[in-house]
Q: What sequence folds into this?
């Protein structure tokens, strides 16, 4: 997606005049008063829906969110939140942020925002209410276990960095892992910083995780591809009805990360900008793609501001990977486009990579090796209830039976602890059946019902979720992510495939 910084009052005036006559009829004859702005916004939204699923109207609230994602910062409280059933739960306060300094804890429930209950609103709606203009206060009501009365806090919004590359760590001796959340103005810089950090730690191979990355800016997709491709390699080309947009983009720089063995992870949630990167890497035979077919968004939008706080994101061109394929799925039936990702092979055009490998269009980026992962129903249900998170919080607070048998990092071992044979809990702890049984006891205490047979079938998934949340609660979210990735079946498969990724580039030690 491309942003056009200027806004055109004439365009707004022209469109406004065309709609105003209808609005005036409604205003004069409708049986009750109407909100003019809401009418105009609705008409623009419906008009754009007739074009394609990716052209849309940005009202002031959505325009503000888009700019926050693009700029890589927002004004708010500095907390990560999650909707767990009807509860809005604080997953983690961001260190140094306004919420952290006021003592908001992971596990706190935000019951009200500015006096309004959070029960009926979604996590996204809550996020929009918590964010706002810099320096403006927002009042939240906190419910905390162990405290009888709710806490009401008024917090002044401050600038919070919105990192698009939140996690980077080593998986073993020489394999680096980096996760990119979205593509924003700061993504390339963030990625380069993480690459250099890991290289100093001994990284010689890279797993780049783009799963669930729903896109962002077109320019960043080109810059990130350039980091890994030799100068002159075609990255992407775009073609539109307006010839102004027709252009080819190639790698411009050398001596970056062209020789590091690379495996990219994708899934159905990988869309747009990360698909450009994946397509460029695959079609140039630069690395391997692993996981599931990506979303299949092969079109480019430009954001045309209308007023200072409204805009239209309009599809202006298709993009083509280096082999010449367009990966856009058919969106004639929008419901099918949203719910069904499968595209039969006979409906997909065939192209070939630079080394002659067969690749397909019209259905996203297909992985070189397919590794599917989906939670069993019970695992997912307990996740939505926040059961793993809540259990881990109680464990970290030494409130479960098993937790009382350990010495935690914030404790000093004493003679009494030694006499009780309490063991020090560290990052080598094995999350075994003791923890599974402790979790079952927690479910029983909280009256969370489950089918024992289904539990046994999902036992390994449940164990991994418990492990992630315990590590997150004791050592921080990145440690939770790291331990979770070490047993991630897609990551484990990637580690196995590095000899093939090395052969694609003629591997040389960094």
A:
């Amino acid at each position: 997606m491309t942003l056009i910084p200027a806004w055109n009052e004439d365009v707004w005036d022209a469109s406004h005049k065309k709609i105003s006559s209808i609005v005036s009829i409604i205003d004069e004859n409708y049986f009750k008063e109407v909100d003019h702005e809401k009418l105009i916004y609705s008409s623009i939204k419906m008009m754009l829906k007739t074009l394609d699923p990716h052209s849309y109207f940005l009202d002031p609230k959505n325009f503000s969110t888009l700019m926050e994602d693009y700029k890589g910062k927002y004004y708010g409280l500095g907390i990560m939140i999650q909707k767990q059933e009807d509860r809005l739960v604080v997953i983690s306060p961001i260190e140094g942020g306004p919420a952290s300094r006021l003592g908001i804890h992971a596990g706190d429930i935000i019951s009200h925002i500015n006096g309004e209950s959070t029960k009926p609103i979604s996590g996204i709606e809550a996020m929009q209410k918590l964010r706002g203009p810099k320096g403006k206060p927002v009042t939240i009501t906190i419910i905390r276990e162990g405290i009888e009365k709710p806490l009401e806090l008024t917090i002044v919004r401050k600038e919070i960095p919105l990192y698009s590359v939140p996690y980077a760590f080593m998986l073993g001796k020489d394999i680096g892992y980096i996760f990119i959340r979205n593509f924003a103005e700061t993504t390339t810089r963030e990625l380069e910083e993480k690459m250099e950090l890991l290289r100093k730690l001994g990284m010689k191979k890279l797993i780049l995780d783009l799963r669930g990355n729903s896109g962002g800016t077109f320019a960043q997709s080109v810059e990130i591809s350039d980091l890994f491709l030799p100068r002159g390699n075609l990255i992407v080309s775009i073609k539109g009805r307006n010839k102004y947009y027709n252009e080819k983009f190639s790698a411009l720089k050398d001596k970056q990360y062209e020789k590091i063995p690379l495996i990219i992870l994708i899934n159905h949630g990988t869309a747009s900008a990360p698909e450009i990167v994946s397509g460029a890497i695959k079609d140039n035979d630069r690395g391997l793609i692993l996981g599931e077919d990506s979303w299949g968004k092969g079109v480019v939008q430009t954001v045309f501001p209308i007023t200072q706080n409204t805009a239209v994101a309009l599809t202006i061109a298709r993009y083509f990977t280096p082999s010449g394929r367009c990966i856009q799925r058919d969106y004639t039936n929008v419901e099918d486009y949203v719910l069904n990702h499968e595209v039969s092979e006979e409906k997909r055009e065939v192209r070939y990579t630079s080394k002659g490998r067969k690749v397909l269009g019209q259905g996203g980026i297909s992985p070189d090796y397919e590794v599917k992962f989906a939670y069993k129903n019970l695992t997912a249900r307990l996740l939505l209830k926040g059961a793993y998170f809540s259990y881990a919080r109680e464990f970290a607070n030494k409130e479960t039976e098993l937790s009382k048998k350990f010495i935690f990092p914030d404790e000093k071992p004493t003679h009494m602890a030694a006499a009780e044979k309490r063991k020090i809990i560290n990052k080598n702890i094995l999350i075994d059946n003791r923890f599974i049984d402790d979790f079952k006891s927690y479910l029983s205490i909280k009256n969370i019902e489950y089918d024992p047979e289904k539990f046994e079938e999902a036992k390994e998934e449940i164990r991994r979720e418990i492990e992630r949340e315990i590590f997150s609660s004791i050592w921080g979210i990145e440690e939770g992510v790291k331990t979770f990735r070490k047993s991630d079946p897609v990551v484990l498969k990637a580690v196995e495939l590095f000899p093939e990724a090395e052969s694609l580039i003629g591997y040389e030690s960094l």
The first strand starts at residue 2 and ends at 3. The chain has three domains: 76-161, 167-373+498-505, 377-487. The chain has a mean pLDDT of 90. The CA atoms of residues 378 and 450 lie 8 Å apart.
